[in-house]
Amino acid sequence: MALTHDFGPMDIFKQVEKTNIKGRHFSFIDDLTPEELENVFKTAVMMEPFWRSRIPLLQGKVMCLQFFQPSTRTRFSMETAMHRLGGSVITESNPMVSSSAAKGESLYDSLRVTSQYADVIVLRHPDEGVVDIIKELGTDASPIISGGYGNVTHPTQGLLDMYTAYRLLDGDFKKMTVMIATPDLSRARSGQSFGLGLARMGARVIYSGTSGLETPPMIREKLKAMKANFKEVNDLTITQQEELIADEGVDLVYLPGCSVKKGDPGRDDFLKKMAEFYFTAEGLKNIEKKTGKTVGITHSLPRNDGEFDIAIDKTAHQVYFKAIGFSIPVRMSLLVNICGI
User: Does the residue 1 lie in any domain?
Assistant: First the structure.
């Protein structure tokens, strides 16, 4: 460790002041600079001792969740994070039925109204066009955190996956190689947010998908603008995927899963193509024999039958359930930094 001017005991108040993102909306993970992301992770490390208890830094603050799409992990982890920080939560999980949206209220009006009740809003919406509404609102709304917009952005999930990698691989993103593998990169919003964040921090990213369902142009432009170290390959067999992992020195494989609802034909197409993305405990063991590296496997969850070998659950390669534990401190960190203390 190099000796710096600010060397001393950890101080959460100084750390939040240093992060300096109070009052900001959070729509894409690259809304934050590398320095801001690093400081969010440093704050999260300070939150870890309290993820099962309480540190009342946001006592008196109110968070509103407005979720226009189903959620378990994002909603519960954000709610838990706010409770651990001593704040309060109001939730609307079915707004098209039980809120004024069912009467035709615009999202713009809804967010302006909700901002009168809440100090911070977490919004999940099926249309990424809400980003333009949030820009229009500006400071007329409380800070709005994306809980997932459309097919392209889910920055709180991206933060969680980045923080898990940060803790798993000793915090140096520039030494990481991560593979994001899915039959449908075009609708893999969690994978795209993770990839953007990794690239922002200097990690090497390999996308593996299928022809016709590549990474969306918006994400490609963002990657190119930041001069990211990335490449995309398509239509590999599972054997070729395993060979690529070994040859490219991949540290972690991320499976974004299928975000398409049951009954949508796109879901059936996704699951039909899963055979070439079906990673097994045996295949990972073979990679370890070849490279000496225990490659991690993580997944956005929920998983479907046939996505990957559930035998991985009982191996050292399993990261997906471990990652859930990290979701609380990193979202505590995000809330503290955006609300301020």
Answer: no
Residue with tokens 């030494």: 175
Same domain, 304 and 186: yes
Total tally of structural domains belonging to the chain: 2
- Average pLDDT for residues 202-210, to the nearest whole number? 97
Which residues lie below 8 Å from residue 292, measured CB to CB, with a gap of 6+?
none
Determine, yes or no, domain membership for 287: yes
Question: 266-270 long-range CB contacts below 8 Å, 24 or more apart?
Answer: 266/184, 266/187, 269/183, 269/184, 270/183, 270/184
Residue 147 lies in a domain: yes
Asked if residue 142 and residue 16 are part of one domain, the reply reads yes
* pLDDT tens sequence across 132-167: 999 999 999 999 999 999 988 999 999 999 999 999
Q: Are residues 317 and 331 in the same domain?
A: no
pTM score above 0.85: yes
Domain that holds residue 125: 12-154+327-339
Judge whether 2 lies within some domain: no
